[in-house]
Amino acid sequence: MIQPPDRVDDLAGLRVAARSRSAEPGVEIGGDWYLSARLPGGDVFLAIGDSVGHGLRAAESMLRLRFAMSAFAAEGHRPATVLTRLNALMCWSGSGMTASAAAARYSPHDGMLTWANAGHLPLLLAGRRVRQLPDPEGMLLGVAPSTRYTQCVERLEPGDMMLMYTDGLIPHGKSIDDGVRVLLKLLAGTSRTPEVLLDGLDYHASHDDATALAIHRVS
């Protein structure tokens, strides 16, 4: 299997559920990936990404990116720096592959979430209201070595639910904006468990690889 497995974790006051599905039925090979891990200092690192294309070549790119992202995050780098280093690595490799990614770091001490984005879809949050979070500046990984990545910060309140996802969840024939509205509606109507939220998503909506990471602040 060349694809991150489905899982549910309890990490520093967060309940995190993840699910990945390949575009090729019966074949667990895809270019999407996610990360959810407790960092050495106690923070939680959360990320999702999508290597352009699907099949074995995209899966090989995914494995390299996921491993490198894990290493950069474990070194203590902020999300924007993790993406900057990943971008430099991809540009230097000369593979011609590109990828989108969103990377976030959560502090259980104060509930602050800091995130950066490399040409990826926006994070969605259900809290006092359901909304799309601000989109930090940053283009796809592997395009230009001089790309600048910025960060945004938001406090997650107890009970908040956040969704990170790939474009495989955007229904075929719909624009990105329309697809995001569909996901926001699902997010608004779900019960407050990440597993139930993931159960309600359509992983074959676009006939592409699809991955989702649902994060619930429980305390």
Concise summary:
The chain has 219 residues and is an alpha+beta fold.
Write up what this structure looks like.
With 219 residues, the protein is an alpha+beta fold. The protein has a single domain, classed as PPM-type phosphatase domain (Phosphatase 2c, domain 1), CATH 3.60.40. It is 25% helix and 31% strand. It is built from four helices and eleven strands, in the order ββββααββββββααβ. The chain has helices at residues 56-74, 79-93, 176-189, 194-199; strands at residues 7-11, 14-21, 32-38, 44-51, 99-107, 112-118, 124-126, 130-132, 152-155, 161-165, 210-217. It has a six-stranded antiparallel β-sheet with strand order 1-2-11-10-7-8. A five-stranded antiparallel β-sheet has the order 3-4-5-6-9. Strand 3 and strand 4 form a beta hairpin. Helix 1 crosses helix 2 (79-93). The longest helix has 19 residues, at 56-74. The chain is globular, with a radius of gyration of 16 Å.
Characteristics:
Phosphatase 2c, domain 1, 11 strands, alpha+beta, six-stranded antiparallel sheet, 219 residues, five-stranded antiparallel sheet
What percentage of the residues does DSSP assign to strands (E)? 25-35%
The helicity comes to 10-25%
How many independent structural domains? 1
Q: SSE order in H/E notation?
A: EEEEHHEEEEEEHHE
The separation of the N and C termini measures: 34 Å
Instruction: Say which CATH homologous superfamily is assigned.
Output: PPM-type phosphatase domain
Q: How do the helices and strands line up, and which of them pair or pack?
A:
Blueprint (H helix, E strand, L loop, with lengths): L6 E5 L2 E8 L10 E7 L5 E8 L4 H19 L4 H15 L5 E9 L4 E7 L5 E3 L3 E3 L19 E4 L5 E5 L10 H14 L4 H6 L10 E8 L2
Antiparallel strand pairs: 1-2, 2-11, 3-4, 4-5, 5-6, 6-9, 7-8, 7-10, 10-11
